[in-house]
Amino acid sequence: MSADGLTHFDAAGAARMVDVGAKAETDRTAVASAVVRMLPETRQRIQDGTASKKGDVLAVARLAGIMAAKKTGDLIPLCHPLPLTSVAVDFSFPDDPALIRVEARVRVFARTGVEMEALTAVSVAALTVYDMCKAVDRGMILERVQLEEKAGGQSGPFRRPAD
C-alpha cells in the first residue's frame, strides 16, 4: 500500500495489480444498483413487451449484466479475475413511472471482493436497456450507479444509508 492509502500504485507511483496472495479466502458479496430514467411510455412498453423488436428487453439486459460481471477482470484495468459463485440481476419498477431500477447481487469465495463485478453488472444491464429501447426513446438517462452493500473481506461490511 502506498503512503496515501491507494493500493493500485507502487512506491514510485506506477499502477500495479494488488497482490492478494496473503489474504484469506472468504465468502464475499456485493450489491449494486442503477436507475434508468425514460419516458413513462417507454417503461410501459418494456413492461408490455412491445419496446423492442430485438426481444424481451429485461431478459436480454439480465443476461448482459450477468455476462459482464463474469468479464469484469477483462474490462477494468487492474481488477482481479474472480471465480464468481453467483450473479443475479433484477429489475424493479419504482412508483415513479419514468424509472426502472436495476440491481445486481454477486457472490464469490475468494481473496478479494466483488464490488466491481456488481457495479459492472448493473452498468451493462442499464446500457442494454438503453440499446434495446433507443429507437423509441433516445433521451433515456442512466444514473445512480452505486454500491448498495458489501459483506466479507478485511475492510468489513458496508451498507449505503437509505435516502
From TrEMBL:
The encoding gene: moaC
InterPro entries for this protein: MoaC, MoaC_bact/euk, MoaC_sf, MoCo_biosynth_MoaA/MoaC, Mopterin_CF_biosynth-C_dom
Similarity comment: Belongs to the MoaC family.
Reaction equations catalysed: (8S)-3',8-cyclo-7,8-dihydroguanosine 5'-triphosphate = cyclic pyranopterin phosphate + diphosphate
Taxonomic superkingdom: Bacteria
GO BP terms: Mo-molybdopterin cofactor biosynthetic process
Top-rank EC class of the record's enzyme: lyase
Every Molybdopterin cofactor biosynthesis C (MoaC) domain range: 17-153
PANTHER family for this protein: CYCLIC PYRANOPTERIN MONOPHOSPHATE SYNTHASE, MOLYBDOPTERIN COFACTOR SYNTHESIS PROTEIN A
Binding-site residues for substrate, renumbered to this chain: 78-80, 116-117
Signal sequence coordinates: none
GO terms for MF: cyclic pyranopterin monophosphate synthase activity
Record keywords: Lyase, Molybdenum cofactor biosynthesis
Subunit structure: Homohexamer; trimer of dimers.
Function: Catalyzes the conversion of (8S)-3',8-cyclo-7,8-dihydroguanosine 5'-triphosphate to cyclic pyranopterin monophosphate (cPMP).
Listed name of the protein: Cyclic pyranopterin monophosphate synthase
A Pfam entry, by short name: MoaC
Active-site residues, as the UniProt record annotates them: 131
Annotated source species: Limnoglobus roseus
Pathway of action: Cofactor biosynthesis; molybdopterin biosynthesis
E.C. code: 4.6.1.17
